[in-house]
């Protein structure tokens, strides 16, 4: 079979842009960090910490793990990926996560759905930001 013409359901394997592969690695690394975030958040909520405080603290834990994963597996070849750029993205993500979670949760959405929604928004914004500023 000719690699040039190989396709799966009409999607040519050789035509995948580099950002698509990076997105897959970003989602895998971010998924691991997110699970850590959610685990710490659940533990803190179970210990009586207010949900908004629990998500703020847990995000710091997840973001710390995520830096090493992103640096090693996602943006390892990117010249612009630095701790400064990452911290800027974390600051933006932390703020968006906290505001989105608080708005959704106080408007009646449950903790889990509010955090899932906030996480999806943050993941999208983070990828776009890092793709733009870390991949120069």
Structure in words:
- It is a single chain.
- The chain has 136 residues and is an all-alpha fold.
- The chain has helices spanning 18-46, 51-74, 83-106, 111-133; strands spanning 7-8, 11-12.
- A two-stranded antiparallel sheet has the order 1-2.
- Strand 1 (7-8) and strand 2 (11-12) form a beta hairpin.
- Helix 1 (18-46) runs antiparallel to helix 4.
- The protein starts with 6 loop residues before the first strand and ends with a helix.
What are the defining features of this structure?
two-stranded antiparallel sheet; 2 strands; 74% helix; 136 residues; elongated; mainly alpha; disordered N terminus
Task: Chart the SSEs and their pairings.
Layout: E1 7-8, E2 11-12, H1 18-46, H2 51-74, H3 83-106, H4 111-133
Antiparallel strand pairs: 1-2
Helix pairs in contact: 1-2, 1-4, 2-3, 3-4
Give me a quick take on this structure.
This protein is mainly α and 136 residues long. It has four helices and two strands.
